[in-house]
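Good day; I would like, with your permission, to put a structural problem before you. A protein sequence and the structure tokens that stand for its backbone fold form the material at issue. The record follows directly beneath this note:
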Amino acid sequence: MSRIAGLLIALLSLAQMSGCGKSTEIVRLDGPTMGTTWSARFAAHRAIDREVVLQAIRTELEDVVVQMSTWRRDSLISRYNNAAAGTWHELPESFAIVLEAALALAAATGGHYDPTVGPLVDLWGFGPGGRRDKPPAAADIAAAKARVGWQRIQFEAGTRRLLQPGGLRLDLSSIAEGFAVDRMGEALERLGIDAYLVEIGGELRARGKRPDGMPWRVAIEQPDSGDVPVTVVPLQDLSIATSGDYRKFFEFAGRRYSHAIDPHTGYPVQHGLAAVTVSASTCMEAGSTATALSVLGPQRGFDYAVRNDIAARLVIRDGPSGFTVRETPAFTALVDAH
């Protein structure tokens, strides 16, 4: 199931509202980015130049890509990853914000979220090096794992200087995408647009209300199964993101290997957690936390979310084709709010 399918109800609502009031127009813009697509829906209470808005969004997205995309050889993160040992690199403000957030989450989760997991991501075929159809050799996994460890990062927050100790490969994909969504929203706000729904690949940020005075409403992305009930979430000044093992994976000898890799083992997770949805104030936080819970697993992830008052919904595989859904109290309260 495409992540964009999670926007179905939101888009239907917008189509139904387009004729609700002559003074408010629902504007829709979209385009490609980061190997997926972006879209923006916003309420225009006045005449607005769509090209100005489009260029503002594209500028923000390109800025994130040239700084933090491991898929571009000339990006800042790629140059850092290939830099010589012992070299220091001064980071732009955006890169520093994302790295600080990633390090904080790594510390909070005991390293289950790790921004240095790049060597393992590449080895398992989920990075820019290309896909694979069978697991790598155990010796190669051990060698890649030896290069992973968020504690190796030496970052001076005050001066925004980052040391390359040698062989360290950052991968900020799971947090940079949400950050880019936040940057899209901030670009709209600078143009005076205070009611919008923006997303990249299904990670969403909502601000303000729809023209009918109600929150934006989105259907949560879920595994391809009729067994999981559709949940609709009201979003007002909130973000939401989903991480699932059904997006990027390969199967070998009857076993599924997903893109969610446990830095402690060096292997893709093998627990039954199929999908995690998290809502938070920023999309950067929602996306990265969903990834962290996916690695922690159904029980530890749920306990971590409850302990930290995180609005999270976990879809857990129950047998060959069944699923069990667990919601934290904060998530239940969010759904029941409207």
Notes: The two ends are 27 Å apart (CA to CA). The mean pLDDT is 89.
